[in-house]
Amino acid sequence: MTATTIAPARRPALSEGLRRKRRQERLRNLAFLSPWLIGVSIFFLYPLVSTVYFSFMKYDGFTAPTWVGLKNWTYVFTDYPFFWPALRNTLWLVIVMVTLRVLFGLGIGLLITKVKTGAGFFRTAFYLPYLAPPVAATMAFAFLLNPGTGPVNNILGSLGLPQPGWFSDPHWSKPALTLLALWGIGDLMVIFMASLLDVPQEQYEAASLDGAGWWQRFKFVTLPNIQPIVLFAVITGVIQTMQYYTQPLVAGKVASGVIGGSGQQFEPGYPEKSTLTLPQLVYHLGFQRFDTGGACVIALVLFGLAMVFTAFLMRRGSGFLATDD
Amino acid sequence: MSNLLIDRELDAPPTTAPGLTAAGRAVRRTRLLNWVAVHALALAAALFFVLPFVFVFLTALMSDQQALTRNLWPDSWHWENLRTVWETPGFLTWWKNTLLYAGLGTALTLLSSIPVAYALARFKFRGRNFAMLLVISTMMLPPQVVIVPMYLFWAKQLHLSGTLWPLIIPMAFTDAFSIFLLRQFLLTIPKEYVDAAKVDGCSDFRALVRVILPMAKPAIAAVALFQFFYCWNDYFGPQIYASENPAAWTLSYGLESFKGAHHTNWNLTMAATLLVMAPVIILFFFAQKAFIEGVTLTGVKG
């Protein structure tokens, strides 16, 4: 932004050669950036404006759209029975799932930095689930946590422990999803491990000489050093939760017995709306009920939430923008 | 953990050496206990991460009857289940579609994102910070936010619903996450390399291809892997655009319907699940370093 600080009138007249060089530079910038400029216009800016437009329209995708003002907005907020449960679930998932994921990821990261024998095996074991395709992982967990014949309840039963209904019980479906999310902690484990290994050893040595126990060393040396990474993990976790779609949908479908194929209608959020998330509502309203306007309202709510968290990330992590000059 | 021990001392594996003083033996005993505690904890955690794979594998090889029982270990091994799944009508098509989507998508993403990332990392121009802000915003955006107009665009205007093209074509116009990751890496390469090349008469494009790209290989490999797995795992995109035409389904989308077709057969469903997970896991063992580098690049070098 330095160019704007010089008023155009006071800029000295440029020589012909320098002007040509500037023009060539602008052309070069444009050439390098053109794929993105086209992409962001067609696949981001245009649909965003379009979403705002459709949120004020009644449109079923077939007959011409008509202006209805705020009707779609009031419908979503007051009459659409799925909206508030979805928002409540999101809040639950943000508080419980994100918190546990960060704590567990940090725990696994701490553990792996202490493991000396078989470190390669442990790292691979902790990392692999992160790579499992979400649909496959959810199918696997739907089977593992199957209340009747699933191995988990099987084992719990033989230990004399209670056997929850997991994905079939509205009180247990979100904990079951949380378990699935904790299983795929590999990315956080790697990030925490890298930052833990970067903590200067001298600080630990100094703290030990001062008589600090392991908890004090963790509190006064480790935590301050990895604090930016913890924040990063929290905020990216929240943003991931805003996009949470495949796992709750597939888990709900498998548990309810309604699954697969086009044209099969699925009442989202099985059981009892307990696995509803906002992205599912965009699909439900827009592509199952052909209510384009309502779907666009949900999309804008989602956009607003995602932007609030992104803004927070940017404020705390302005390092993302920094360049070397 | 005892406060007698600083972390670095854990590096040494516990040994029993003769002729130690009482205090020395106490330190060694604490160290041994420490080692046992850490590894017991790690083993317990490893069970949590590994057992689901083991149960999926065991169930995939059970007979139809046994998969309905509470048995955990197969009475007899039915390797033919994998073959049955493989020969299920459609399964091979899903593979081809997934490979097409992931392969072409990754290639197009790299081709379009590298020059953009380079420009955002190195060229000076007005609005560069704003451009970066836009990249991060699009990266954070749930795909559902823009899906309604995008679907109308592809389906009503271009008549391409029922194919994977609405998912592949946008990759020719960059992917925000790939730009972000590449840019973060390119920032770490000293400018002097390009300056030297330009003094030798290289154009910006030639300098990028000949000087920067060879140095950025690890980041490019990481971006390629991430993009490949994004496409491989994508469920929402194929559900929106390809669901109406089974010939265009991908593995992620087809796997779910597979459970529908084989309603009670957990063994076949788990065999299919295993076959969908397998490529990812095999590729991980070949490209471990690139995966780890990619993850650390996103989180640490921010």
UniProtKB/TrEMBL annotation, chain A:
Keywords: Cell membrane, Membrane, Transmembrane, Transmembrane helix, Transport. The chain crosses the membrane at residues 29-49, 91-113, 125-145, 176-197, 218-239, 292-313. One of its GO terms (biological process) is transmembrane transport. Gene3D superfamilies: MetI-like. One of its GO terms (cellular component) is plasma membrane. It is found in: Cell membrane. The keyword Cell membrane applies. Its main location: membrane. It is a multi-pass membrane protein. Residues 87-313 form the ABC transmembrane type-1 domain. Belongs to the binding-protein-dependent transport system permease family. This is Carbohydrate ABC transporter membrane protein 1 (CUT1 family). It comes from Kribbella voronezhensis.
Automatic annotation (TrEMBL), chain B:
It is a multi-pass membrane protein. Residues 95-287 form the ABC transmembrane type-1 domain. InterPro entries: MetI-like (IPR000515), MetI-like_sf (IPR035906). The keyword Chaperone does not apply. The chain crosses the membrane at residues 35-62, 99-121, 133-152, 164-186, 207-230, 266-287. It comes from the Bacteria. It holds the Pfam family BPD_transp_1. GO terms for cellular component: plasma membrane. Keywords: Cell membrane, Membrane, Transmembrane, Transmembrane helix, Transport. The keyword Endoplasmic reticulum does not apply. Its main location: membrane. PROSITE patterns: ABC_TM1 (PS50928). It is found in: Cell membrane. GO terms for biological process: transmembrane transport. Belongs to the binding-protein-dependent transport system permease family. PANTHER family: ABC TRANSPORTER PERMEASE PROTEIN MG189-RELATED, ABC TRANSPORTER PERMEASE PROTEIN MG189-RELATED-RELATED. This is Carbohydrate ABC transporter membrane protein 2 (CUT1 family). It comes from Kribbella voronezhensis.
